Task: inverse folding
C-alpha cells in the first residue's frame, strides 16, 4: 500500500517472514505500480541476505541433516570445489542414480553445477556401502550463497528400501572466505554418538576430509559404564576389510550387551590421517545399550526412524492405544489428509487406523490414537506415510519421510512350572490367563488335539498335549495339559499352543487365544533323576540349574536332596 504521507513510497508486506538463512531476490513486476501519468513502472529487483540469527547477523547457518555428514563441511569458502564425500550413519545405503543432484544459486535459482555419484571402494574393489563420492561438472567461484540439493529418494535404506528425505547443504563463496583445508578433528563414527544399540562391539571411525586413515602404533581406547567403571578396551584394526581407505574399524575386548549408558574415549593420536600421518583429535562418544534397540540384522525388530521418538517405544506389550511422537524440529505440521494405517505383519491385512492431533507441546509433539485398541496378540506395524508430517515454518516446509513403528501384542499366559524352568520331565503343566475371569476348551481341541505339541531344539515333534477333561480344583481361568508320551530326555524344549485352542472370557464376550509357546529344559542333573543307595547316604546339593555343587556356603539358592529322595529349597544370603 502507499504511504499515507508520501505518495512516492510503496509499503510491501510479505505473506510470511523469511527466517531461513539464504539469499533472496524480491521482484516487483512491470505494471505492479504506476506513476502519476498512469505509465507502468518497469520491473524492479532487490537482493537480500538472511543470516537466520538475529543476535549474530554475520553467523553462517548450515542446514541440519540427520544421519549424514559431508566433506567439505558446510561453510564460507573462497570457492566451491568439484568433489564432495558423503558418509551416512547407516550400515548400508542404496542410491538412485536417476535423481538429479544440483548446486543452486540461492539468489537466482539458477543451477550452477550438476553431479555424478558413486560408491567408494575397498582394497578388494568392494563398495563401501555407506560412503559416496560426488563429482561436479564445474567449480563455483562467483561470490554468493549456494545450496547443494539431493531430492527425496536419491538415497534409500538397504534394510527396508525406504527412501531417505531430501538433503541440503549450504555453501557461501566470498572473497574473504578461506580456502578449504582438511581438518583432523573432523570425524564421523558409525554408529553415531548418542545412538541406542543392542550391543556395543564394533565402531567404524571415518575422517571425511582425508583419503586415508589408520591406527597409531599405541592406543588407549576405553569404555566405561554410567558409574565410571571400565568395562572394555578398544582395539583399532589395520585391516580395511569392508571399509574405505579413510575409515578405521575399532573392536572391543568384550561384547557389551548389558543395558545401560556407556562412554567411549579415543585419546588424541589414536589415529593417523592423511599422507602426512597427522594425529587425530580426542573423540568421546556416548551409547545406550537396550535389548529392543534397532538392529539392521534383525528384519523383525524395531524400525529405524531418525528425527522422531515415540512413546511407548517399540517393543512387546499386552495392549496399546495412544502414542506420543516427539520430533527434533522446532514445530511439526500435520497433513490430516494422509491415511495412517496399522497392519498385521503376519497377514498383511489392515488392522486399524490412527487419528492424530497435537500434544501438550504443540511445537514438537503429536498424539496418535489407534482405533480399535491393539489388544489382540500379534505383530503390528503403524505406518505413517511420507508427508504425514512436515517441518512447519522452514523454507519450503519440506515433507518428512515415511515412519514405521513395530509392536508385538503378546498373549498374557502364566505357566506352572514357569516358562524357562529346568524340570525333571514334561508330563503335565497348567496354564493360566490372568487377564480373563474364565476360559474354556474350544471344540477344535476335541477334533485336533495335536494342536499342542512339544518340539526339541531340532524342531522335531517329540510329544503331544491334550487338555485334561477333569479340571476339578483349578481356577476358572486355568487349564491343565497332559503330555503323551512324557518327555524325559535331556535337552531344550518348546511347547507350542496353536490358535483357537481356548475360548477366553465370559460367554457373551469371549475370543479365541492366539498362538503362544512355553519353554523348558531337562538337564543331566535334574533333581528327580537322582538315585540314592541308602537312606543314610549324605545329602546332595544342587544349584538352580540342576548342577551339583560341593556346598551351600556361598550366597545363592540351592536344592538339597536328602537320602530318602525328598528335596528342599534353601536360600543362603
Result:
Amino acid at each position: 500500500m502507499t504511504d499515507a504521507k508520501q505518495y512516492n513510497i510503496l509499503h510491501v508486506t510479505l505473506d510470511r517472514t523469511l527466517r531461513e538463512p539464504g539469499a533472496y531476490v524480491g521482484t516487483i513486476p512491470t505494471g505492479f505500480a504506476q506513476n502519476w501519468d498512469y505509465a507502468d513502472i518497469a520491473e524492479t529487483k532487490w537482493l537480500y541476505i538472511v543470516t537466520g540469527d538475529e543476535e549474530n547477523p554475520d553467523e553462517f547457518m548450515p542446514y541440519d541433516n540427520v544421519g549424514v555428514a559431508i566433506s567439505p563441511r558446510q561453510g564460507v569458502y573462497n570457492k566451491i570445489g568439484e568433489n564432495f564425500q558423503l558418509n551416512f550413519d547407516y550400515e548400508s545405503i542404496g542410491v538412485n542414480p536417476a535423481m538429479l543432484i544440483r548446486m543452486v544459486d540461492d539468489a537466482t535459482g539458477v543451477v550452477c553445477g550438476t553431479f555424478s555419484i558413486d560408491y567408494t571402494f575397498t582394497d578388494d574393489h568392494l563398495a563401501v556401502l555407506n560412503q559416496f563420492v560426488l563429482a561436479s561438472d564445474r567449480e563455483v567461484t562467483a561470490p554468493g550463497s549456494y545450496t547443494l540439493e539431493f531430492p527425496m529418494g536419491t538415497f534409500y535404506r538397504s534394510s527396508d528400501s525406504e527412501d531417505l528425505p531430501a538433503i541440503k547443504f549450504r555453501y557461501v563463496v566470498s572473497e574473504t572466505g578461506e580456502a578449504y583445508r582438511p581438518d583432523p578433528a573432523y570425524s564421523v563414527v558409525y554408529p553415531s554418538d548418542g545412538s541406542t544399540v543392542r550391543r556395543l562391539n564394533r565402531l567404524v571411525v571415518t575422517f571425511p576430509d582425508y583419503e586415508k586413515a589408520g591406527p597409531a602404533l599405541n592406543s588407549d581406547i576405553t569404555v566405561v559404564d554410567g558409574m565410571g567403571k571400565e568395562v572394555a578396551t578398544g582395539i583399532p584394526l589395520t585391516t580395511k576389510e569392508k571399509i574405505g581407505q579413510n575409515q578405521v574399524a575399532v573392536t572391543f575386548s568384550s561384547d557389551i550387551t548389558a543395558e545401560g549408558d556407556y562412554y567411549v574415549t579415543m585419546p588424541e593420536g589414536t589415529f593417523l590421517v592423511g599422507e602426512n600421518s597427522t594425529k587425530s583429535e580426542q573423540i568421546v562418544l556416548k551409547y545406550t545399550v537396550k535389548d529392543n534397540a534397532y538392529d539392521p540384522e534383525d528384519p523383525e525388530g524395531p524400525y529405524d526412524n531418525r528425527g522422531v521418538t515415540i512413546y511407548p517405544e517399540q517393543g512387546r506389550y499386552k495392549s496399546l492405544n495412544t502414542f506420543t511422537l516427539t520430533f527434533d524440529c522446532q514445530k511439526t505440521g500435520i497433513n490430516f489428509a494422509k491415511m495412517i494405517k496399522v497392519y498385521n505383519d503376519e497377514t498383511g491385512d489392515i488392522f486399524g487406523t490412527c487419528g492424530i492431533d497435537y500434544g501438550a507441546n504443540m511445537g514438537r509433539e503429536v498424539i496418535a490414537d489407534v482405533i480399535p485398541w491393539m489388544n489382540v496378540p500379534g505383530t503390528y506395524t503403524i505406518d505413517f506415510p511420507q508427508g504425514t508430517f512436515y517441518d512447519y515454518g522452514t523454507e519450503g516446509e519440506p515433507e518428512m519421510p515415511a515412519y514405521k513403528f513395530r509392536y508385538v501384542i503378546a498373549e498374557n499366559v502364566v505357566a506352572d512350572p514357569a516358562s524357562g524352568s529346568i524340570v525333571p520331565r514334561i508330563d503335565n503343566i497348567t496354564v493360566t490367563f490372568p487377564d480373563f475371569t474364565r476360559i474354556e476348551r474350544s471344540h477344535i481341541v476335541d477334533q485336533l488335539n495335536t494342536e499342542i505339541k512339544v518340539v526339541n531344539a531340532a524342531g522335531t515333534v517329540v510329544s503331544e498335549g491334550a487338555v485334561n477333561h477333569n479340571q476339578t480344583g483349578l481356577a476358572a481361568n486355568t487349564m491343565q495339559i497332559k503330555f503323551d508320551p512324557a518327555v524325559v530326555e535331556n535337552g531344550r524344549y518348546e511347547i507350542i499352543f496353536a490358535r483357537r485352542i481356548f475360548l477366553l472370557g465370559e460367554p457373551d464376550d469371549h475370543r479365541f487365544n492366539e498362538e503362544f509357546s512355553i519353554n523348558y529344559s531337562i538337564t543331566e542333573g535334574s533333581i528327580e533323576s537322582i538315585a540314592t543307595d541308602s537312606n543314610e547316604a549324605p545329602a546332595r546339593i544342587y544349584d538352580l540349574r540342576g548342577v551339583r555343587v560341593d556346598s551351600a556356603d556361598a550366597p545363592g539358592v540351592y536344592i538339597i536332596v536328602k537320602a530318602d529322595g525328598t528335596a528342599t529349597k534353601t536360600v543362603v544370603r
Remarks:
- The first strand starts at residue 22 and ends at 28.
- The radius of gyration is 33 Å.
- Residues 445-449, 526-537 have pLDDT under 50 and may be disordered.
